[in-house]
Amino acid sequence: MDLKKIQNIHQYKECELVGTDLSETNLNGADLRNANLHSADLSCAYLFQAFLTQANLSGANLSGSDLGNADIRMADLREADLRGADMSEADLSEANLNGADLSYGDLRWVDLYRAQLRDANLSYADLTAADLSDADLTGANLKHADLTRADLRGANLTDANLTDTNLTDAIKY
């Protein structure tokens, strides 16, 4: 695939990019809706304000990437590596993040409404003012996470590890 050609126009909509190395690539504002990025390497990529709605990012490496203000609604991020990623103000509502590693991530003001986060690793993540309403956090690791002012109404925290989690002013009911 000629990545230079599509990089110039930032149109990846519905593209097959399975296993592609896009590490450190500037994809700010790119249209990746419905793209198949299964097991792709997007580590340290720039995806600020990118459109990833319903994209398949399962098993992808997004560690250290910038996903701030990105539209990631209903995306498949199962088992994705998002360690240390900046996802501040991103919309991940109804996304599937089961088994994903979001440890040490910047998730301030992120929208995770009705997101699936079963067995996800959110240890040391900053979830200040995050919307986790109706999210499924069953078995999630939230050890040392910051959930200050987070909205947890209707969230399922069954068997979640909340050791040393900061829940100051969190909305729980």
Q: Please report which band the strand proportion falls in: under 5%, 5-15%, 15-25%, 25-35%, 35-45% or over 45%.
A: under 5%
The general outline is: elongated
Query: Counting H and I runs of at least 4 residues, what is the number of helices?
Result: 1
Q: Do you know the CATH architecture? A: 3 Solenoid
For the record, give the distance between the C-alpha atoms at the N and C termini, rounded to a whole number. 50 Å
Most strands sheet: none
| Relevant CATH superfamily | E3 ubiquitin-protein ligase SopA
Number of domains: 1
CATH topology: Pectate Lyase C-like
Question: Topology as H/E string?
Answer: H
Helix content: under 10%
Low-confidence stretches: none
User: What is the averaged pLDDT score?
Assistant: 94
Class based on secondary structure composition and strand pairing: little secondary structure
